[in-house]
Amino acid sequence: TTSEVIAILDAGAQYGKLIDRAVRELKVETELLPLNTPAAEISAKGYKGIIISGGPNSVYAADAPEFDDQVLHLDLPVFGICYGFQLLNKSFGGSVHAKESRQDGQQEIEVETSCSLFAGLSPKEQVLLTHGDSIDQPATGYTVVAKTGEIIAGLANEAKNHFAVQFHPEVELTVNGRAMFRNFLYNVCGCQGLFTVKDREVVAIDEIRAAVGDKKALVLVSGGVDSSVCAALVNKALGPERVIALHIDNGFMRLDESTKVKVSLERLGVPLHVVDASDDFYNGRTNIKRKDGTSYETQALKTVTAPEEKRKIIGDTFMRVAEKAVANFNLKPEDVYLAQGTLRPDLIESASTLASSAADAIKT
To answer: What amino acid positions are annotated as catalytic residues?
Structure first.
């Protein structure tokens, strides 16, 4: 397994999951951490390098996120993006000032191709600039390696392996952003690209076996990627005799989709139990509490048009149907684990502590 891990310090970036994905697609493992993670904790983990994300705050704001400056003195390569760019510059004595107007959009910048970050690129690159603060004076020891007009768009201190940009290399509007990440990961941090799908599969199977031990696992399979991959992995780790995979057909599936889900998983050796609960959902009702504390019972789902009522009816009906279906297996809570598959971007969007509690919640 790989020991090459890049720490991404999250300052509440809008594009945080894109940084995470960009690095992982280059076969390097990542760990998303809050911006205020202590330097001692980062040092103890043995990371290959650090990326400091963008964020909505100003480094000079009274409510600016906490940051341990010692992180920048760990003798680790650092790549600061937007907020990370300004933070790095400020930490070493440079000045950052708020401009009267923001600068947002795709723009052409001039880059120093002698800089390790821009090696192999053209002297002019298309990038996505989004910022309200700009650097007036670069920090001591840092040279300007990218600019657009009078705006400083990139700084570097090659001796420290510190690089920072005012644009977003993680988005497609920065045409050669992946090449910049590759330069940082491979040429600066010395990564070899050991984080592959096969490697991740081996690690996941080991983790499942360690967590479940000799007990069973219950997987609720919707038919989507998240739960289907989870069911396949759990089955591979524990064997079909210790996996209860349950699919509830709520009547809202596409034509014959539940049958296709069952066939697909059984091809992978996963025995899938299918419950047709169409009528339960079609006629489902629930109680909804009003803001004044009173509650009311909804009409049957088949007659309801209000989206929020529909959502609550479906959610509550699913729980009732699932509990009834699970009871038929006569499982003891102490003898079974509930396995749930969730895509990493969804964890980030919901600000889960499993990925990044610093991100703004998009899903709740």
So the answer is: 82, 168, 170
